[in-house]
Design a protein that fits this description.
alpha+beta, about 55% helix, 4-stranded mixed β-sheet, globular, 9 helices
């Protein structure tokens, strides 16, 4: 994936509110419930507030997807914390060309987040479930490949998954801050 392609995809993306509004009433309620249930800790906010490099992030998702419902609002909270993070949302089924480029284990899994530098050079991508989410699923032995979007999510699982996502954003920010190319561009 090159920078021009990622720029086009990012620009085609929707802000969170518009993306969530594209769903049915029940889907919007599911996303809102998890959003309302989630809060960053003071330490997480302080860390994210310190980000100085712009990162363009593409959230490839399905408004109908249980894993997206359980993780998308968490990532949105992260993005809202710092204006350097420009997160846009794309529907997986409307952007199958991108979905095919980020297939996981030969599958079209969501959510997947693509992290780009300020000039849309690709930096990293991460998805479909964080380690904490996989640990929970393994412990519960759900069997289903995707939880029901309306299923309640325990607070401790949300907190652990949120920390996994904060760690990913921190990783990308540090990669951007330590990038020789960007340090030369910004003189730092």
């Amino acid at each position: 994936m090159n920078a021009d392609y990622l720029r086009q995809k990012h620009q085609a993306g929707l802000p969170y509110e518009a993306y969530v509004q594209s769903g049915t009433d029940a889907q919007r309620e599911n996303w809102q419930r998890v959003y309302d249930q989630t809060a960053l800790t003071d330490a997480q906010r302080q860390l994210l507030d310190g980000f100085t490099r712009r990162m363009n992030v593409i959230g490839l998702s399905g408004i109908w997807c249980g894993d997206c419902v359980q993780q998308g609002p968490l990532v949105q909270h992260i993005a809202e914390t710092n204006p350097c993070i420009d997160l846009r949302w794309l529907d997986r089924d409307e952007h199958i060309d991108l979905q095919e480029k980020v297939a996981i284990n030969a599958g079209h899994r969501v959510p997947v987040f693509l992290f780009c530098a300020e000039d849309y050079e690709p930096v990293a991508w991460y998805g479909d479930r964080t380690l904490s989410r996989y640990r929970t699923l393994a412990a519960q032995q759900l069997g289903a490949s995707c939880p029901l979007p309306s299923a309640a999510v325990p607070q401790d699982e949300l907190a652990a998954t949120l920390q996994d996502w904060v760690d990913q954003f921190e990783r990308v920010h540090l990669l951007l801050r330590l990038s020789g190319r960007l340090r030369q561009l910004h003189g730092d």
